[in-house]
């Protein structure tokens, strides 16, 4: 590559979008490219974008599967518009061109642009030849033809030959970004160990793609500067896997065996699948007959002394709500993970939204407060799941962890923690033959004890009927009921004494405070960072603890001329803040499209607010 | 992360009824069949012989579901229809407990129908006492999924127009491994059956025909009336021919593919022609026919109808954990965090 030195460009960060038919293997090359990039020292975030249908008809717009990665020096999101777009057929170009920057490089498989497929995608003519892409750098690669010629001697069937095309695209990308092929070649040998011909075919095509890029003059070679990641041991992790691991970590720390009762639902299923693998760590997963059985079995397991969890997404949470009231009144620990998706009803199963916040806070009959914590990024899912379990176990109350499809499916680099560095978890277990009373409370925390069936001398009964204070007998006494309602609320509220104070990125006062919660942290943070670098008096407060809120929340919100609350819903957190701190005049910025915020729209909006001052 | 308890530990001393009597006031109506069931349970628990802290009673909603408050064990009063699901979690998390589900016809087969059949299909090792009074008692007299067609109730003033479930048929249809039927007025048989249920590995369903004195009094008169009941009941005993009747002169035989009531001595029929009960048979064919027998064509079968040996969910779970733990190189969370593709940044 030395002869192309003149063309080497140094970029702070790059966004690549891979798109093809859902059977084209885009997710696989996305993953391989991510691992290679991460290994080379770049910071990285990814997001797969696949259709709800498993295999929609070939070459149709409905069947397009995508994978976006954002890498470079410092990365907070999986990126907005792409610098490079790979389009394996006309339908994927059609659906993804709007996500490419003007002037972006487009890599297309020219052989898949036939009259038929072009028409199927809804184009009037072939976009590769009709000049409509003149604003872009277009790399037309005859992937199918080259694959056939290259693999002629291997005597593979046509289908297997076509399946190697994704490696051709990957080869071009490795050339373009000056990345080593070694990691991928090793992977292919391992993956196809039982089928060396297929391994060989994929390797040949990977190299063919690389060489193709090397021979055509039009390619401007790019190189990305190395990120300055802190020293340490890293891996790549998606939010859903991180959630599953955070739960196992909490189980190990607390000494309470992990039980998961769950029912498959997009985009939360991966957590159930991951935990199902870990019988090796004693994890018991129970794939229930429905969402209600998922949560009910977990409540039973919690009564029996397990660290019990249930995982779901919006509609599934709706089904669990009655049972959550039972967990509240029995004051048992329970972790509920809601990987939010677009609603209402079935809504947008594979898209992301933050519209379950009010459901999580208030969606139960009676007054039934629960801990609500929201994870802010794929890696934070690990720590947020761990903390949700910790507070739930130590405070004997059910807790909801909110993540979303965007961070659940998205990945980030994870600085691998040591278990010994994580905080202890000490559930309030009642001792055998002690003077246990079901609703006797710790005077400081108001937490009752956990008496585990099988323990001598602690036989007792709890249930969904209101119970008398301390003794735990069935009681309809009016004043007792009021007392118990207040205890349950106050117990959750007092957890704020243990929470770290709410942090602010930037100054404690200024013109504008940007407020966000949950999975949008990266987008808001990077927008505020850009504006601060321009000298604007903007700060950012991102909330992870929703109920209870950190005790300094009011202080954080005062001190700014304006406060804007940004959410991927019509304004749920802002309603909650208005309820708690009505004296603050909140502005809102909302988006309900099943899509994340983009940097540009946020900055534009915040600038408008500043101009109106 | 070891399982909480591995096996059900037995009590080193002989327990008695008083060890399980609760100090709570029992609030069922005087004359309700539930009282007799409670006494049978208090009697059978010491006989089963586990340590008293190893029993857990889990219920749903309904008159019967108040049961856990009235027995001195670990108890959990759940929500409507979910006792089966809650108990599944209890047993899987803590296989060393003897778990008892208390439910009724509405709780188990209407609102909780889905969990009921899946519990049975999984064969989780729990015991389920199904109080069947063919009516909703706690909500004061609406029809239930077992109310006979045409029943006049508060929500069916002109008679029901839906066909009832036969619980035994439902249990066997869901691949149940244990089904027995008892009646509240026969405490001795009830206790025997409960003991058998406790002994069985897998989901043991005991249907107790239970009289609701307020809203459905006399629903089982034909089976409980001292004068004629023996003519209408067949009490099954494993290995014994199926004989019934006041004078023990009637029997059940298989005629082609159907059961048939025959009179001993008539048409040359002797005991040898009668079916001999085999509760352990893997094939549920005859069990199903026995469970379905109904008055007036047949006597109603009581006793253990089916008790077949199949692997239980909780055993398979424990076995799998032991096997996978032995095979895996990942022994703790640190191992998992550091497994797969990882790299160092210097």
Description:
- The complex is a heterodimer of chains A (613) and B (346).
- Chain A has 4 domains: 2-224, Pyruvate-ferredoxin Oxidoreductase, domain 3 (3-Layer(aba) Sandwich); 235-421, Thiamin diphosphate (ThDP)-binding fold, Pyr/PP domains (Rossmann fold), CATH 3.40.50.970; 428-498, no CATH class; 510-611, Rossmann fold (3-Layer(aba) Sandwich).
- Chain A is 36% helix and 21% strand.
- Chain A contains 20 helices and 22 strands.
- In chain A, strands 7-6-5-2-4-3-16-9 form an 8-stranded mixed β-sheet, with helices on both faces.
- In chain A, strand 12, helix 12 (314-330) and strand 13 (334-340) form a beta-alpha-beta unit.
- The longest helix of chain A is centred in the middle third of the chain and has 20 residues, at 196-215.
- The radius of gyration of chain A is 27 Å and the shape is globular.
- Residues 1-6 of chain A have low confidence and may be disordered.
- Chain B has an 8-stranded mixed β-sheet with strand order 2-1-3-4-8-7-13-9, with helices on both faces. A 3-stranded antiparallel β-sheet of chain B has the order 10-11-12.
- Chain B is 29% helix and 19% strand.
- By secondary structure, chain B is α/β, with parallel strands linked by helices.
- Chain B is built from 11 helices and 14 strands.
- In chain B, helix 3 packs across helix 4 and helix 5 packs antiparallel against helix 9.
- Chain B has a domain at 17-219 and 311-337: Thiamin diphosphate (ThDP)-binding fold, Pyr/PP domains (Rossmann fold, 3-Layer(aba) Sandwich).
- At the A-B interface, helix 1, strand 9, helix 9, strand 10 and helix 11 of A face strand 1, strand 2, helix 2, helix 4 and helix 10 of B.
- Strand 17 (461-463) of chain A pairs parallel with strand 2 (74-77) of chain B, so a sheet runs across the interface.
């Amino acid at each position: 590559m030395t002869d192309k030195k003149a063309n080497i460009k140094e970029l702070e960060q790059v966004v690549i979008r891979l798109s093809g038919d859902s059977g084209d293997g885009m997710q696989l090359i996305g993953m391989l490219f991510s691992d290679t990039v991460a290994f080379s020292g770049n910071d990285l975030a990814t997001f797969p974008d696949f259709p709800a249908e498993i295999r929609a008809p070939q070459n149709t717009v409905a069947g397009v599967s995508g994978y976006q990665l954002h890498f470079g020096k410092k990365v907070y999101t999986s990126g907005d518009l792409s610098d490079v777009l790979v389009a394996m057929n006309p339908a994927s170009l059609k659906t993804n061109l709007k996500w490419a920057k003007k002037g972006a490089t487009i890599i297309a498989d020219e052989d898949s642009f036939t009259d038929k497929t072009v028409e199927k995608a809804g184009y009037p003519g072939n976009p590769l030849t009709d000049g409509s892409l003149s604003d872009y750098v277009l790399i037309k690669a005859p992937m199918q033809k080259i694959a056939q010629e290259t693999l002629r001697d291997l005597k593979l069937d046509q289908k297997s030959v076509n399946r190697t095309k994704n490696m051709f695209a990957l080869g071009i990308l490795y050339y373009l970004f000056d990345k080593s092929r070694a990691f991928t070649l090793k992977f292919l040998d391992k993956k196809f160990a039982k089928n060396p011909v297929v391994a060989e075919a994929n390797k040949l095509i990977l190299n063919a793609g690389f060489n193709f890029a090397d021979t055509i003059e039009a390619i401007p070679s790019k190189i990305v500067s190395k990120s300055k990641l802190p020293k340490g041991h890293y891996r790549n992790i998606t939010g859903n896997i991180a959630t599953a691991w955070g739960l196992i970590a909490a189980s190990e720390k607390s000494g309470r065996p992990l039980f998961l009762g769950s029912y498959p639902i997009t985009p939360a299923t991966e957590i159930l699948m991951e935990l199902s693998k870990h019988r090796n760590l004693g994890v018991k997963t129970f794939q229930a007959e429905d969402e209600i059985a998922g949560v009910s079995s977990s409540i039973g397991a919690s009564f029996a002394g397990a660290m019990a969890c249930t995982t779901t997404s919006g509609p599934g949470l709706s089904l669990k709500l009655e049972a959550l009231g039972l967990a509240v009144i029995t004051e048992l620990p329970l972790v509920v993970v809601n990987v939010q998706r677009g609603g209402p009803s079935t809504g947008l199963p594979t898209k992301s939204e933050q519209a379950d916040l009010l459901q999580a806070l208030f969606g139960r009959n009676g007054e039934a407060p629960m801990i609500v914590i929201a994870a802010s990024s794929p890696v934070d899912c690990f720590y947020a799941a761990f903390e949700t379990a910790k507070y739930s176990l130590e405070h004997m109350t059910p807790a909801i962890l909110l993540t979303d499809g965007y961070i659940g499916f998205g990945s980030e680099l994870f600085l691998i923690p040591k278990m010994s560095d994580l905080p202890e978890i000490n559930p309030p277990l009642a001792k055998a033959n002690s003077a246990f009373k079901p609703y006797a409370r710790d005077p400081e925390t108001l937490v009752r004890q956990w008496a585990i069936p099988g323990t001598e001398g602690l036989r007792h009964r709890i249930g969904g009927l209101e119970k008398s204070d301390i003794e735990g007998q069935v009681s309809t006494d009016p004043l007792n009921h009021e007392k118990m309602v207040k205890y349950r609320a106050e117990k959750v509220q007092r957890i704020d004494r243990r929470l770290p104070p709410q942090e602010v990125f930037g100054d404690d006062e200024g013109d504008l405070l940007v407020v966000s919660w949950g999975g949008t942290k990266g987008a808001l943070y990077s927008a505020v960072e850009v504006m601060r670098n321009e000298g604007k008096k903007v700060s950012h407060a991102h909330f992870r603890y929703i109920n209870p809120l950190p005790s300094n929340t009011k202080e954080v919100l005062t001190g700014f001329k304006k406060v804007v609350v940004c959410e991927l819903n019509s304004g749920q957190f802002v309603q909650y803040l208005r309820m708690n701190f009505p004296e603050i005049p909140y502005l809102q910025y909302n988006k309900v499209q099943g899509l994340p915020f983009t940097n540009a729209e946020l900055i534009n909006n915040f600038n408008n607010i500043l101009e109106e001052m | 992360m070891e399982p909480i308890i591995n096996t059900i530990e037995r009590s080193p001393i002989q327990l008695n009824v008083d060890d399980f009597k609760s100090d709570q006031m029992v609030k069922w109506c005087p004359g309700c069949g539930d009282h007799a069931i409670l006494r049978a349970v208090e009697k059978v628990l010491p006989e089963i012989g586990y340590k008293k802290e190893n029993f857990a009673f889990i219920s749903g909603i309904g008159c019967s579901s108040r049961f856990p408050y009235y027995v001195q064990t670990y108890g959990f009063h759940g929500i409507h229809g979910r006792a089966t699901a809650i108990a599944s979690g209890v047993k899987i998390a803590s296989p060393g407990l003897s778990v008892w589900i208390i439910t009724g016809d509405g709780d188990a087969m209407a609102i909780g129908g889905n969990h009921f059949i899946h519990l049975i299909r999984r064969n989780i090792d729990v015991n389920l006492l199904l109080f069947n009074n063919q009516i909703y008692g706690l909500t004061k007299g609406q029809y239930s999924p077992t109310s006979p067609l045409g029943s006049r109730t508060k929500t069916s003033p002109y008679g029901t127009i839906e066909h009832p479930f036969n619980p035994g048929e439902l249990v066997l249809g869901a691949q149940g491994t244990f089904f027995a039927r008892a009646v509240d007025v026969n405490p001795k048989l009830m206790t025997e059956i409960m003991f058998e249920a406790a002994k069985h590995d897998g989901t043991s369903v005991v249907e107790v025909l239970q009289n609701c004195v307020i809203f459905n009094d006399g629903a089982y008169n034909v089976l409980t009336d001292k004068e004629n009941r023996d003519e209408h009941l067949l009490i099954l005993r494993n290995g014994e021919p199926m004989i019934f009747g006041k004078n023990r002169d009637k029997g059940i035989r298989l005629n082609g593919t159907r059961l048939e009531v025959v009179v001993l001595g008539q048409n040359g029929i002797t005991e040898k022609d009668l079916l001999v009960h085999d509760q352990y048979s893997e094939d549920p064919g005859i069990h199903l026919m026995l469970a379905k027998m109904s008055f007036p064509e047949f006597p109603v079968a009581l006793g253990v109808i089916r008790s077949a040996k199949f692997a239980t969910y909780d055993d398979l779970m424990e076995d799998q954990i032991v096997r996978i733990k032995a095979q895996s190189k990942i022994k703790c969370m640190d191992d998992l965090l550091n497994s797969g593709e990882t790299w160092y940044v210097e």
